[in-house]
Amino acid sequence: MTVSLFDAAKLGEWTLANRMVMAPMTRSRAGKGWVPSVHAAQYYGQRASAGLVITEATQVCRDATGYSRTPGVWSSEQTEAWRAVAAAIHEGGAKAVMQLWHTGRMSHPLNLPEGCEALAPSSIAADMPMWTDQEGFQPCATPREMTAADIERVIRDFATAAANAISAGFDGVELHAANGYLIDQFSNSASNRREDEWGGSLQNRVKFYGKVIEAVASAVGKDRTGVRLSPYGTYGDVSDNNPKALLEAQVDIAATADLAYLHIIRPMISGAEDVGATAKDREVLEIARRRFPNTLIAAGGYSKESATVDLNEGLIDLVAFGKPFIANPDLPARLKAGQPLSDFNGDLLYAPGPEGYSDYPALNAQA
Does pTM top 0.90 for this prediction? Predict the structure, then answer.
């Protein structure tokens, strides 16, 4: 029997309307106090014809902030604002998952709350530019190496943020362990030069990743917890001396924790950029499929046709689409009907306000 992208699917105990996932995408629309935009509920609700909607990465604590105008979920005001987003997603028919992150060294002092500093496993700056609203692009901060107390505190912050997300009405949370942010910084050998129990060997480097998973699953339930990985990824100036072994270790930890799902970014995507198909794109999914028993989501450059191939080969269970959702809020209907897709305005991708965010019309609304 042929599997369609538009078939209903199970994700643990959840029933999804289709096999399409709206991937998490930073949009930099948050307001004062890192509170989600007043337009966020409309934006996500418009795209809730996906089976599953995963929000933009959301800070778990004050010093998790790295980019301009990205939201948090550590305060009561932030948590309450997220309630409308979860409700809008549910009203549109999708399940709602909040992605949680700590950006670690991918930060700049101008973007951090007062009194905060960039933290990382080691005091090594990422060789990356960071946008600041005050002074444009600046070099990333040189972070302070985290103490054991810092590490334990951030693990607790992930668990608290996850509980806040569930209290706001979200069905689950996704841990952002990809793309060179804090969890990924611990896991990769180039960014983690520690000589204690949190660094050195592969087993030690993935300890932080495992402890965050353990804490969050304990706080909200393993059936409400997923994790996102970017195997072989170099975005955020990370790299590992044995990326295949790292992926296997990460997948095994997720499998042992019996998480609801594993979300893999194919290596053809670096951060938000498509770098072209690689020989590793299939290999990483085969590794994940063999070693992880629950729902497997894949992201990265999929078309309707290529998604259908991987679904029918049993390689993956769900397919995440990112950029196509930006200017096509009704993406599932457009793909199903074979209708053309609209292009988004790149100049407005990270601009504040509703323009280029919640003002893209559905196809049936275009005259």
Answer: yes
